[in-house]
Amino acid sequence: MSQQASSALAGIRDVLIGIAVENEGETASSAIGYGLTLAKAAGAHLTLQSASWRLSGDDRWISGFDDGSVAEIDRRLDALARAIAERAAGDARMAGVVCTTETPSLPYPAVIRRLAEQARLHDLAILDAGIWTCDLDREALEATLFESGRPVIAVPPGHAVFAGRRIIVAWDGSAPAARAANDAMPILRAAEAVEIVTVGNAAEIRDAVPGAEFAPHLARHGVNVIVNDLPVSGSIGDTLRSQAGLFRADMIVMGAYRHSRTRQFFFGGVTRSLLRSCPVPLFLSR
């Protein structure tokens, strides 16, 4: 990474990685490697919250187990969360990154609440993204976005190293989109090329704040920016995925969840579509 890029990333001073362990098969995390390499590039402090979901005290999940078996499951999950934290702390030491870890063992609602609270104390949070097979995965990411006031980078499998040479800013003229671009400014300034992408028909693009009007703001901050208005091909999510491949993007920056979580759950949305299937990490703000 060039000295200019490192200088731009220096605007990021502390990074939180959030891991929630809920079964013994969960040992792989792209978010840990991604967050560690981002913290190293930025010269930032790294915090890892490796939490385990404690079944005892959670009446919704305790039925069907006797007290001894529940306590044993809690012990094993706590041990796994601690092992993940210790391994990450060791990797951070070798990389020269100052790292703090915490390993809370908490019932389901408290795991989510603790992550959102911790995110408020950091410049950004980094979480794993992928196919949501359980409520904990989805709730952790959504609660952090809705309740922390901080941006989140959602890292899909296979992206364990931070890269930010070429970045797409998904622009729809909304307040969340403007907030996302502003929150991502250190990363955008460090990039070699940034493309503002607006997806829609001519009338939709005309009625929104055009990307061409937003581009000068980024340029004044030293961002090397171009603008690209695209028609919808399949869906907005499909169009952004396709453009990320054509642009060889390392990241998509976008405003998250323009509608309520309830509406998103029942009717879907661009954010959920991309979180379920995206070729690159997503930088999200709400």
UniProtKB/TrEMBL annotation:
**What Pfam families does the annotation carry?**
Usp
- Tell me the SUPFAM superfamilies matching this sequence: Adenine nucleotide alpha hydrolases-like
Entry-linked InterPro entries: Universal_stress_UspA, UspA
Q: Which residues form the UspA domain?
A: 165-284
Gene3D superfamilies recorded = 3.40.50.12370
The family line of this record is: Belongs to the universal stress protein A family.
Its recorded name reads UspA domain-containing protein
Organism the protein comes from:
Methylorubrum aminovorans
